[in-house]
Amino acid sequence: MMDDILPAELPLFAVWVIKAVVIFGSLISAAGITTLAERKVSAWIQYRIGPNRVGPFGLLQPLADGVKFIFKEELVPDGANRLMFRLAPMITAAPAMMCIAVIPFAGEVVIGNYNLGNLSITDLSVSVLYVGALTGLGIYGIILGGWSSNSKFSLMGAMRASAQMVSYELTLLLAILSVVLLAGSLDLRAIAESQASSAEGGIGVWNMFLQPVAFVLFIIAMFAETNRHPFDFAECEPELVGGFHTEYSSMKFALFFLGEYCAIIVMCCLVTTFFLGGYDVPFWDSAPWFIQLASFVAKAACFIFLFLWVRWTLPRFRYDQLMGLGWKVMLPLALVNVTVTGAVVSFGWSPLITPVLAVAALIPGVILFARSNPGEASLTGHALSEEGSAS
Amino acid sequence: MSSQTTNPRTTFEYKPGVPAEYEDDPIHGEVMKLNMGPQHPATHGVLQLQLALDGELMRDINPVVGFLHRGKEKTCESLGWAKFFPHTDRLDYVQPLLNNVGYALALEKLADIEVPERGQVIRVVLMEVSRIAAHLIYLGTTGIDLGAVTMFFNTFKEREKIYTILDAYTGHRMNNTYVRIGGVYSDVDETVEGMLREFLEQFEAQVDEFEGLLTGNRIWYDRNRNVGAITKEQALAWSLTGPNLRGTGVEWDLRKSQPYSGYADYDFEVPVGTIGDCYDRYLVRVEEMRQSTKIALQALDRLAKSRGAAVLAEDRRYILPPRQKVQSSMEELIHQFKIVTDLRLPKGEAYSGVESSKGELGFFVASDGTSEPLRCHIRAPGLMNVQVIPLLAEGRLFSDMVALIGSLDFVMGEVDR
Q: In this structure, is residue B232 part of a structural domain?
C-alpha cells in the first residue's frame, strides 16, 4: 500500500535537503546542549548544582536562554561602524557552521527501502582544504567585531585573537598534514575509513596511536583555534572585560557564542575523524549506520567534555607565553613530526614505526626544553620590551 | 634614598600621538590611554588605573584611589570611641574581627587597660581565623584573575565554614563587631570551640588541595614567577608590610617582633620568600594559612583549659557593667548610661599596630580627655600596596597587571577609608 504512494527511490535533491536539514538542525541543537553541559559540568566541578529550574534537570535552559537573548534590547555603541558591527557576529557564526557539511558521521544510511547514501551533507574530495579554509575565516568576525565596537578593550581582544589564530592555524594544519600523508587522501571520509580494520591495505589502527605527537598538537591547537580557555585571550574577562564582545548585546552576542560552540563541536568532530577512526566501531566492521553514528557521537562527546573540563580547571596563559608556546615549541614539533611521517610514507615503511621514529626525533628537543630553567624559558614582559626597543 | 628605590615618575605621563622614539618606526603606533576601572572585573573593588599602553606594554600607570572614601577617621572623631567599633568592620571588610582587635588594642594602650587571659586567647583565635578567611579571598580572587575560576569556589567553600562558625559565635556572618575595649563581648561556648576545632583540623588538607591545583601548575608558575618582583630595599622604602614585604625575604612580622595579645607564647613560624615576586607572595600567603591554623589550634587548647574565666576586663571606668547588675541596681544603670553616652579616655595619644592579612594595620588615637576623640588615624597597609603598582608594573605586559593587583592584595574599603 505504502509502496504505491511513495516513490521507489528518493530524488537526489530530496536526499540532500533531508540530510542538510537534519545535520544542520542537529548542530544547532548540539550547540545548545553544549551550553547546558558547560553550565552543568562547571557546576559539578565547583560544588554547585547548576541550572535546574527550567524543565527537568534544567534541560530546557538553552531554550530559555535563547528566548531571553531574542527579547533583549540591541545596543549599538556610539561611534561604532554600524555595518561591520552587525556583520561581525554572522561572519563568526557562519563558517563554524559550514564546516559541518563535510564531516562524515556514518557510512551508508538505509532506512526501509531507501538508501540515503553516506551520512554527511556532502563528500568532498578536498574536504580537508575546505575545513582549513573555513576555520581560518571565523577570525574575521572577531577582528571586525572588536574593531567596529569603538571600544579599546574590544580592540585589544581582536588584536590578540588575530595573532593567536595565525600562530596556531599553522600547527593545526601541520598536524592534519601528517595524518593526510598517512591516509594519502584529502577526503575526510577516506581518512576516517583508512583507520578502520576493514580498510584496504590498512592495519586497522587509529591515527591516535600512529601519530601521538600530531594528536597532542592538534588537541592543544584546537583549544587555541576555538579561543577557548586556557587560550581565551580574545575575551579574557579579568583583563579585557569581555574582549571583542564587550559591546555586544542581545542576539548578536548570542551569535558569537553560537559560533564558538559550533566551532567546538566541529573541532571535536574533526579530531574524532582524524585521530579516532571517525565512525569506526572497534572490532565490528559491519556495524549498522546508527551504531556507527553513536560511536562517532560518543567519541566527539568525550572531547567536548575535555573542552569543558580544561576550561574550569586550568589558569589562563599570558599572551606572550601563548605565542612562545605556539612558535617555539609546537611549530617545531609539528615540523619534525611531518618530516618523520613523510620519510616513513615515501620509503614505504610500515606506518607502525612512525610513533617510534617521531618520539625518537623529539627526545633531544624535549631534553633541551626540560633542562632549561623554566623561569628563563618564559618570556617576561621585560625581555619583550628589551627586544622591542632593540628592533 | 638611591635612585633605584624611588619611582622616577611623580606624575602620570600620557601624551596623545606617536611617541618621539617611534617617529621613524613604521610598526609602532600611538600610545593608547586606557582607563581600567573603577568598574572593572579585576580591580578588586573601585580602584581606577589609568594606563598608557604601547600595544600590550604598559608605559605608565596611575592608580587613582578614593572612590570608596567614606570619611571613616572623621566618623570616629564625631561618634566617639566605643561607637566606632562597627565602622572598623567596614575598613577591610574581609577580616572585620582583626580590624576590631587592632582598634581595641590602641584604645587599651591609651587607657592602660589589661585584657584578661581568656579574652586575649579568644582574640587570637578570632584574628587567626580572620586571617585565614582573608587569605582565602586573596587566593580565590587571584585565581579568577588568572583564569582559574574554580579556585574561587574551592576557597569560598572553606570561607563559608568560617562564616558559619562566626555566625554561631557572634550572630553575624560578616561585620561581626564582637571585640570591645578590654576584651570580647561574650565567651566562646563549647559548641563553637568544637566547630572551630573541626574546621581547623580538616583545613590543612584543603590547603594541600589548593596547592595541588596551583603551586606546581606550569601555567600558574609562569604567570606569577618574575612578575612584579620587588627588592628588599624597594619594599622597605615604599613601607610595604605583611606578606608583600615577607615575600622579598625580610622576616618582619609584628606577631614576632612586637608581640601583642600574647602572641609571644605561641609556637609558629614566619614564612619568607626570596625574590619578592607574585609567586613568592602567593607561597607566603599559603604557608601563612597553615601557620594560622597551627596558632588557632594552640589557642583552642588554652581555651579548653580556662573555661569560665573572665573575657572582659573589670575596669568600670571604660567597660560596661554586666547586664544582670544593670537590671537590678540603679547605680549600675547610671554607670552604663554614662559609658554609652560619654565614654572618656585619658588625655594622651597611643599607636598600636597589628599584623593584619595585608600588613601592619595601625591605629593612632589621640584624646584630650573629653568624650570626643581628638584624632583617629588609620594606617591602612592596603594603601602602601596600591602605591607600588606603578613601580612594579611599568614596562610590563598588560596581562601582568591582573596578576599584580591580585598578589598585592588590597581591599579598597581600607585603602580609601
A: yes
